[in-house]
Specification:
The complex is a heterodimer of chains A (about 260) and B (about 400). Chain A is of the alpha+beta class and about 260 residues long. Chain A has 2 domains: about 1-30; about 30-75 and about 125-240, outer membrane lipoprotein receptor (LolB), chain A, CATH 2.50.20. Chain A contains 5 helices and 13 strands. Chain A is elongated, with a radius of gyration of 22 Å. The termini of chain A are far apart. In chain B, the strands form 2 sheets. Chain B has a 6-stranded mixed barrel with strand order 2-3-8-5-7-6, surrounded by 4 helices. Chain B is of the alpha+beta class and about 400 residues long. Helix content of chain B is about 55%, strand content about 20%. Chain B is elongated and about 105 Å long. Classes of the chains: A alpha+beta (about 260), B alpha+beta (about 400).
């Protein structure tokens, strides 16, 4: 005991801590909060205007919708379906966690009740909840890096488990991210029993309006064979001036 | 010789014979009317139930009944219709598109079954327009009109000429939504169904649900529901398509069929009691008429008649009387049944079987309602005459004539 004086212990501790820090950088594990923040805000800005195509495939039918989407921060969005003709003019408004659909043919505004949140939006594999979801991965989930056995070197894997009071149906979400630009490539959604329910893949990364974003999103539910929904961004503009009236029930009927 | 004797015996005591015949005729008529009323009213319920709603036979895409889905459609329904139309016993057929959705008038809304019907074929098959309580039937052309159930109209506070909005999911995944003008209020007699059913013109419904040229159901009505199984077999072999299910009303309206069967079972017991009463009545009369003549049989024996000849004599007499009773009984029963067939018996309180409002009991004239009482009267008379016949045969001449 006499040999190891308090001074030596301090020095040893210092060396140890440095080497641990060194090892971490060597593993190049980035700051997890930074990564999740990036995923959370991938398509997000103060305001955005986008035109997209939604291609829905089921064993019984196929259908492609085109739509214009306006968003304001995380809490407001407005979707106008522009084709096919039969459905053009249908609008969806989301403010906070409330949501309405408008059907021009019958002049009906339908408020989506909480019980319908997990139902499909316009027959797609995206739920109403996917569209209104306000929860941020950063604030509402517990997260950690995971290292799957067959992990690819260029990717990072993050497992997200909802915090106790987060309202969600998922038991676990696993996101695969590119190591170099933190752009997600795949998102797996599991239920509470750990069963894989659906997979979303991101691809066709393009530089749009100064941002590098995936422009093709493919949602494949694992519990419904033959179902698939693809979203393709045609144009997207960030931080533009939008009329505040866009996000009102009045405009829902006008369809902008 | 014995027969002649039996005949003379019967005629000798006219009052006694008349009384015996009277009892047996009474029993026969009672049995006949009871049976024809039972079957008549059951068949009447079945007939009106099947004719107005389910039809006698239904054709669906395979597995539709177990697990209905908007995608389980029949796409060549007019071809199938053409084929079955020519089968003997088929009266007509009607294609239907069946789905469900939310219907609303003003602020009120309700979940409802949405049925698309072909105006002409449906009317021919189920006499649809006869049950439109208020308003009119669809015209041949689709014109965005709707006919709604009586109860549904009440729930929605809807009147004729109101606009009704339907909201549902179409077969292409889009939101099916459209407006229709109410032109009729429908009273099928099935209150429960009327509370949640709306009818559209088939073409309008196909348009709403994006199911061009498809239906979910083909209803077939026959000239008589009793030939259902036979015609079903013929349709099956004619269509010979494993992708479609062909089912009889017993399968489609299973709970209705089962409740009818249960009620029939209940009525068997009722009929059994009536039969028993008839048998006891016959037995009593026959026994008395034989015992009354103990001394005569004693005399016959004393004159050297064999016991089996006496047995024959008694049985012949009774059979003779019972045949007479059956003939008279048949005439009276026919008159009674015919009267009840036309007028029926109105129940003091009407009641509901399987959603069909019953307020009248109607008789049915069939072979059954004569055959069963005939057998009962003959068998009962024969059986009951054996005991007194044996009694008579055993008579000891000295003893029985002692009382002379």
């Amino acid at each position: 005991m006499r040999i190891l004086s308090s001074k030596t212990i301090k020095i040893l501790l210092f060396i140890a801590s440095i080497s641990i820090a060194y090892c971490q950088t060597k593993n190049s594990a980035p700051d997890i909060e930074t990564v999740i923040h990036k995923i959370d805000n991938l398509y997000l800005s103060n305001t955005s205007y986008g035109e997209m195509e939604m291609e829905i495939t089921t064993p019984h039918w196929e259908r492609t919708l085109t739509m214009t989407v306006y968003t304001s921060k995380r809490d407001k969005s407005f979707i106008l379906i522009t084709s096919p003709k039969k459905e053009s003019g249908m609008t969806t408004l989301k403010i906070g966690n409330e949501m309405w659909n408008y059907l021009p043919k019958t002049d009906k505004v339908i408020k989506i009740p909480p019980s319908m949140m997990m139902s499909s939006w316009m027959g797609s594999d995206f739920t109403n909840d996917d569209l209104v979801k306000e929860s941020s991965l950063l604030n509402d989930y517990e997260y950690k890096f995971i290292y799957p056995q067959n992990a690819v070197d260029s990717l990072l894997y993050i497992q997200l488990v909802p915090k106790e009071n987060t309202a969600t149906v998922w038991g676990k979400i696993v996101v695969w991210i590119f190591k170099d630009n933190y752009i997600p490539i795949r998102e797996e959604f599991y239920d509470e029993k750990g069963k894989l329910l659906r997979v979303m893949t991101y691809s066709e990364i393009k530089n749009i309006d100064g941002r590098k974003i995936p422009t093709l999103l493919e949602m494949v539910p694992k519990n419904k064979e033959g179902h698939k929904t693809i979203i393709r961004y045609k144009t997207i503009k960030f931080d533009i001036n939008l009329d505040k009236d866009i996000f009102t029930l009045r405009n829902l009927k006008k369809g902008k | 010789m014995i027969l002649k004797l039996a005949f003379r015996n019967a005629l000798r005591q006219k009052r006694r014979s008349l009384f015996t015949v009277f009892t047996m005729v009474g029993g026969f008529v009672l049995g006949s009317v009871a049976i024809s009323m039972t079957y008549g009213s059951f068949n009447n319920v079945i007939d009106s139930f099947t004719r107005t709603s389910t039809g006698h036979i239904q054709i669906h895409c395979a597995g539709y009944l177990d697990k209905p889905s908007i995608y389980k459609t029949i796409d060549d329904y007019s071809v199938i219709g053409e084929k079955i139309q020519h089968i003997k016993g088929v009266k007509s057929y009607a294609p239907r598109l069946v789905s469900a959705g939310l219907v609303s008038v003003g602020e009120k809304s309700n979940a409802a079954k949405i049925i698309g019907i072909d105006p002409n074929l449906e009317d021919e098959t189920t006499l649809f327009s006869k049950r439109i309580e208020n308003g009119r039937m669809f015209t041949e052309k689709p014109e965005h009109r709707a006919i709604i159930g009586k109860g549904l109209a009440k729930n929605l506070n809807a009147k004729i000429a109101d606009t009704i909005v339907i909201l549902s999911q179409a077969a292409d995944g889009s939101i099916a939504n459209d407006m229709y003008e109410i032109i009729g209020i429908y009273d099928s007699g099935n209150e429960m169904a009327d509370r949640a059913t709306i009818y559209l013109n088939l073409a309008d419904a196909q348009d709403l649900f994006v199911l061009p040229n498809s239906v979910h159901e083909i209803v077939v009505v026959l000239s008589n529901f009793k030939i259902t199984q036979k015609v079903l077999g013929e349709i099956e072999s004619k269509l010979n398509n494993p992708k479609i299910d062909i089912q009889s009303w017993q399968v489609i309206a299973k709970s209705f069929y089962e409740s009818m069967e249960a009620k029939k079972q209940g009525n068997y017991i009722m009929n059994l009691i009536i039969i028993l009463i008839v048998a006891i009545g016959v037995f009593n009369t026959v026994l008395m008429s034989v015992l009354e003549r103990t001394r005569e049989y004693g005399l016959l024996k004393a004159l050297g008649t064999r016991p089996w000849q006496i047995i024959k004599l008694v049985i012949y007499e009774i059979v003779l009387l019972s045949f007479t009773s059956v003939i008279i009984g048949s005439v009276i029963s026919t008159a009674a049944n015919y009267f009840l067939l036309i007028h029926g018996i109105t129940y003091p309180i009407s009641f509901n079987i399987g959603g069909i409002q019953m307020n009248k009991m109607i008789a049915e004239i069939s072979v059954r309602s004569y055959l069963i009482p005939t057998i009962i009267v003959l068998v009962a008379a024969f059986l009951v005459s054996i005991i007194p016949a044996l009694q008579a045969a055993k008579t000891e001449p000295a003893k029985s004539m002692h009382h002379l």
